[in-house]
């Protein structure tokens, strides 16, 4: 790659190539460590919520850790370009900065726990969102948006009887809804469901 300023198209192409090649994982993990400011991979395991054996397996296989790159980008604001390829600056300059800060909340046992705000690349946010925020639940990341309207078919961040969760919801006639939860699926009145946000995207760990 020449030293001339990269265009956005160049950025995306090099990131896609890095993912497609599925190699260079060790170097990527080292950059992730640097982005967080950690000196050991054990600290990184704790941050990512993965076992040391999972980390060792990824490191030895040298496969591209796309999920960890995304998480690191969201939590540190480090450039996707730099994390993926080592090219460019760790963080974009103020002039080139394409990230925005959004709220981050974790859901544990149905309880909402506010976390530190995270930075996300504007290119990853769909247009037309009102007030996007990030949810973490069982090692799964959800991009959600505030919502003020009727509950319709889709995935929702909801609260029932003071228990918060992310569920797929179907709207029925007569103000009834079905809450999908495997064998524990059930129907109730739409008025029994408090809508906390609409789910836009979902990212989950494979391992």
Automatic annotation (TrEMBL):
Domain Bacteriophage CI repressor C-terminal: 101-200
Annotated Pfam families: Phage_CI_C, Phage_CI_repr
Record domain Bacteriophage CI repressor N-terminal: where: 27-89
Identification of the protein by name: Phage repressor protein CI
Domain of life: Bacteria
């Amino acid at each position: 790659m020449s030293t001339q300023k990269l265009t956005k198209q160049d950025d995306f192409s090099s990131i896609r190539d890095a993912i497609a090649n599925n190699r260079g994982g060790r170097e990527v993990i080292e950059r992730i460590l640097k982005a967080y400011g950690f000196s050991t991979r054990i600290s990184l395991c704790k941050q990512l919520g993965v076992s040391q054996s999972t980390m060792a397996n990824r490191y030895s296989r040298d496969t591209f850790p796309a999920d960890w790159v995304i998480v690191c980008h969201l939590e540190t604001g480090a450039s996707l370009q730099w994390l993926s390829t080592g090219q460019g600056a760790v963080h974009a300059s103020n002039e080139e900065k394409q990230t925005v800060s959004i709220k981050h909340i974790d859901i544990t046992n149905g309880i909402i726990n506010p976390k530190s705000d995270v930075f996300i690349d504007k290119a990853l946010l769909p247009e037309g969102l009102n007030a996007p925020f990030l949810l973490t639940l069982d090692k799964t990341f959800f991009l959600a948006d505030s919502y003020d309207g009727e509950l319709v078919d889709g995935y929702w961040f909801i609260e029932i009887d003071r228990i918060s969760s992310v569920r797929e919801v179907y709207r029925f006639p007569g103000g009834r809804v079905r809450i999908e939860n495997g064998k524990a699926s059930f129907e109730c009145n739409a008025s029994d469901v408090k809508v906390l946000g609409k789910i836009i995207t979902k990212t989950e760990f494979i391992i």
